[in-house]
Structures are given as structure tokens and as C-alpha cells.
Design a protein that fits this description.
This protein has about 110 residues and is of the alpha+beta class. Helix content is about 20%, strand content about 20%. It has one domain: HIT family, subunit A (2-Layer Sandwich). The protein has a 5-stranded antiparallel sheet, covered by helices on one side. Bound molecules: adenosine monophosphate and zinc ion (ZN). The site of adenosine monophosphate (AMP) has 12 residues, from loops.
């Protein structure tokens, strides 16, 4: 998608602090970190949101999920981490390219 912020980050058109990439995913630091560690994990192909997934994406999604613990450890998060996926306007999604927030640090607020 030519007008997508995260697609432009993947191509290098918009700079970012890249942490990891392979043939399927791209990982970079959130520009407005809400925790000591705050990464965004995105597929290299454009998918609008979790709402747009189909069975064609099964291998991609399992690949992403399996990378998350290693990514957390690579950031020094040896004692747990949090993942968040905001979906759609009511879910608080601001960027329309599927992304997983990977957050960690000692003082994450409780959700309840
Ligand atoms: P969401 O609200 O789930 O759509 O999250 C979008 C995230 O993208 C927010 O946490 C923003 O801080 C982050 N963000 C927006 N622009 C950039 C950028 N240029 N580089 C890195 N992160 C960004
Ligand atoms: Zn995109």
C-alpha cells in the first residue's frame, strides 16, 4: 500500500530504529515508547488489521508469534513481557498496518 506509514518504514522511505527483520517480518522501536522497551512487530506484507486476516495468513501469523519470546529476550526482557494488538477505530488502532506492540520493563501498569 503506497500510502501506508509502516510500509514506508519497511522500504526505508521513512527512517526508524530497526531491531530485527527477516523475510516475513520487520521489527522497530515505537517512536513514542510507553514502556522501557516498546517494539512494533509488523508483517512485511501489508495487512490492514487483525480483522483482515484469512486462512492464507496462518503460516505468517504463527511465524510472528513464535518470534515474540526471542525478540523480548533480545531486549533483555527475561522476566516476561506484554503484547497488544489494537484493531480498528474502537480498538484504538491508529496505523492501518497490522502491528503487535511488544512492551516490557519493570513498571508496566496493571490492566485490572
Ligand atoms: P496503534 O495505536 O496500535 O495503531 O499504534 C501505532 C503506534 O505506532 C503508536 O504507538 C505510535 O507511537 C507508533 N508510531 C507512529 N509513527 C511511528 C513512526 N514513524 N515510527 C515508529 N513508531 C511510530
Ligand atoms: Zn502497510
Amino acid at each position: 500500500m503506497s500510502d501506508c506509514l509502516f510500509c514506508k518504514i519497511i522500504t526505508g522511505e521513512i527512517p526508524c530504529s530497526n531491531v530485527f527483520e527477516d523475510n516475513k517480518i520487520f521489527v522497530f522501536k515505537d517512536i513514542n515508547p510507553r514502556a522501557a522497551v516498546h517494539l512494533l512487530v509488523i508483517p512485511k506484507i501489508h495487512i490492514d488489521s487483525l480483522d483482515e486476516l484469512s486462512s492464507d495468513h496462518q503460516a505468517l501469523i504463527s511465524h510472528i508469534m513464535l518470534q515474540l519470546p526471542d525478540l523480548a529476550r533480545s531486549q533483555g526482557l527475561d522476566n516476561g513481557f506484554r503484547t497488544i494488538i489494537n484493531t480498528g477505530p474502537d480498538g484504538g488502532q491508529e496505523v492501518g498496518h497490522l502491528h503487535i506492540h511488544l512492551l516490557g520493563g519493570k513498571d508496566l501498569p496493571s490492566f485490572n
